[in-house]
Amino acid sequence: MATFTSHTRFLLHLHRTHLHHRTYQFRNAPPIHRTQHTYTHTPRKPTRLKLPPTLSLFVAVSGLIYYAATFHISPQPKTLNPQTFTAYTLASKTPVATSPPSHTTIFSLRPVHPPGQQLPSTEGILSVQIKQPQLQIARSYSPLPSNTGEEDDGALRFLVKLEPGGEVTRYLFSLGVEDKVFLRGPTVEYIFPPAGEVDKTLFIAGGTGIAPALQLAANSLAPETEIFWAVRSRAETGGAMAEEVGRLVRKAGGKVSVRVFVDEEGGIGVHDVERGMEGGKVAVVVSGPEGFIKWVAGEKVWRGGREEQGKLGGMVRKVLEKRGGEVTVFKL
């Protein structure tokens, strides 16, 4: 029998006891459809209102005084928070691989007003919104785990793939070092199971979905964490990302293992997922593009303006239908 966790997103400023309620955060409100009406009227001749010169001067001066008095009422926030966007500076852009040219890059963002604060990653997998200011849209990204001793200034690092149709990714790749970037968050996307609740966490990640997988591996309380990382090309796993993964595995001291599946070399199959789901009480977490999530565990659905987990499907369902058992599944 398969059990599911609720698709739950929580803001960290909520009280701890609220984290287990079925509370939802909405990234996009449903559009409001209005009936279009056409009106016709004959415009009236405009009437000009003339004010005495002294009164006009008084109104102008009063407006300037009000503007000067209120200009600093709402200063730009200096620390990352879930309500408003905070300024960061692009410190570096590190391509994952240099040959062939990489379309995946690690962006390091440093707060404009240090000292910043580290994200409280022990609650669960976190995401942070990055704003595209020209279009006034934002997209959520999971930060990579912090490097101890290297990010005391509050810097955040994001693994981003350039998507041809992605407005936010194209904006990020167009930026130069020292350019401003605006962030909001964090949001808890997935709460780590309490100690003793699961024997193992299996994280199946597609492409840049490895970022939340590494975040989980660095902070999860499960005795064992196994990551299946599916990529199109082995070049995606080299360079800077090879260093990231290797550093985390060494730091975990045997509690974390990472296995790479390359599409060009056969990719990941049902038998791989079946083997990964062995080991007692297992929590399965899936992250990546929509098509990848659907293929592994069934698609997520939108219902009533809310993104929900949807039915269990894909390879995980096939494994359970074949052997039975119980597993907790969550799709990021």
UniProtKB/TrEMBL annotation:
- Domain of life assignment: Eukaryota
**Cellular compartment(s):** Membrane
Lineage here is:
Eukaryota, Fungi, Dikarya, Ascomycota, Pezizomycotina
Classification via SUPFAM superfamilies: Ferredoxin reductase-like, C-terminal NADP-linked domain (SSF52343), Riboflavin synthase domain-like (SSF63380)
What is the protein's given name?
A: (Perigord truffle) hypothetical protein
Native organism:
Tuber melanosporum (strain Mel28)
Q: Which cofactors are required for activity?
A: FAD
- The positions annotated for binding FAD are R139, Y141, L159, K161, V168
Swiss-Prot/TrEMBL keywords: FAD, Flavoprotein, Membrane, Oxidoreductase
Chief place where the protein resides: membrane
Presence of keyword Transport: no
Locate the FAD-binding FR-type domain: which residues?
83-193
GO annotations of cellular component type: membrane; mitochondrion
From the UniProt entry, list the residue stretches annotated as the region Disordered. Answer: 28-47
What CDD domains does this protein map onto?
Answer: cyt_b5_reduct_like
Gene Ontology molecular-function annotations: oxidoreductase activity
Q: Tell me which PROSITE patterns the record gives.
A: FAD_FR (PS51384)
One Pfam family this chain carries?
FAD_binding_6
Does the keyword field hold Membrane? yes
Family that this chain belongs to: Belongs to the flavoprotein pyridine nucleotide cytochrome reductase family.
